[in-house]
Q: What sequence folds into this?
């Protein structure tokens, strides 16, 4: 079955905020690095953010740094992406990812597990 399930997407105006959630199913991901990617129509999948298994280290794409925050609550087996000051160029399908062997694999877009995506649309 699906291992990662994203939620929280929607239609917002520029400057608004959204919080995406990724709730794994079927197994615990508490010891996995996790992250977020996005893909806009006609574009390649783009790295957004990643977090280490224990939440100590975080990484962000330059395009979202200072606006987005990735976090996790391992006791709830959930990872979040808080998105503030949204821009039209943030419009995309957002995917969560997980890998047992470190955030570098997520940043390299070779994570072992992927969700099905949630749509974020930001109007100007």
A:
């Amino acid at each position: 079955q699906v291992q990662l399930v994203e939620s929280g997407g929607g239609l917002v105006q520029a400057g608004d905020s959204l919080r995406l959630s990724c709730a794994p199913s079927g197994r615990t991901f508490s010891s996995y690095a996790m992250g977020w990617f996005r893909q806009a129509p006609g574009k390649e999948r783009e790295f957004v953010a990643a977090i280490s298994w224990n939440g100590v280290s975080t990484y962000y794409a330059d395009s979202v740094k200072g606006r987005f925050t990735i976090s996790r609550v391992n006791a709830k087996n959930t990872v979040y992406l808080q998105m503030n000051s949204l821009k039209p160029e943030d419009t995309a399908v957002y995917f969560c990812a997980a890998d047992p062997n470190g955030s570098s694999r997520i940043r390299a877009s070779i994570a072992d597990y992927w969700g099905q995506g949630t749509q974020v649309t930001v109007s100007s």
Remarks:
- The mean pLDDT is 93.
- Helices lie at 103-107.
